[in-house]
Design a protein that fits this description.
By secondary structure, the chain is an alpha+beta fold. It has helices spanning about 1-30, 35-60, 70, and strands spanning about 95-100, 110-115, 130, 140-145, 145-150. It is built from 3 helices and 5 strands. Strands 1-2-3-5-4 form a 5-stranded mixed beta sheet, with helices on one face. The longest helix is centred in the first third of the chain and has 30 residues, at about 1-30. The termini are far apart.
Length: about 150
């Protein structure tokens, strides 16, 4: 009689243990994505945040900032702080900002914010893919001189 009462508990324990094991494996697999994915996610997030801060600056001052530092240290008489500090990209380099169209960008915009990727050079693919605010999609564009990731 004792054996029959014990069996449902045993199968329940096995089922629960299996679910916990599957959950642990799925957590490990989902958190062990490539460094490239996490780097591009950080770059995309930072570029979007900086582009939004530039747009807020424009609304307040009716002009583009001359450099990204104006977002941290706004002009005298300004009460708005657009960003607490300028972020560095995943590789420790500052983000680029320009009000003139960079040679490697095909779209015409009022301003450009970007990271040159892991290699720090214009263009590239994979880790080296540039990430900027000049495209409507989060993907790389191929070109004769490389590829550029864009976010907007």
């Amino acid at each position: 009689m004792l054996g029959r009462d014990w069996r449902p508990w045993r199968w329940g324990s096995i089922a629960l243990g299996t679910l916990v094991l599957l959950w642990a494996i799925s957590c490990f697999v989902s958190s062990s994505g490539s460094h490239s994915d996490s780097a591009s996610t950080k770059a995309i997030s930072d570029v979007r945040a900086l582009a939004s801060a530039v747009n807020l600056f424009v609304l307040d001052h009716e002009r583009l900032p001359t450099e990204l530092e104006e977002l941290v240290y706004p002009p005298p008489g300004t009460v708005s702080l657009y960003v607490a500090a300028l972020p560095a990209d995943q590789w420790g380099r500052p983000y680029h900002y320009a009000t003139r169209q960079p040679a490697h960008v095909q779209e015409v915009l009022p301003f450009y914010v970007w990271s040159n990727g892991a290699d720090g050079l214009v263009g590239g693919t994979g880790f080296n893919c540039d990430t900027g605010n000049w495209s409507r999609e989060d993907r790389c564009y191929g070109s004769p001189s490389g590829a550029w990731c864009g976010v907007r």
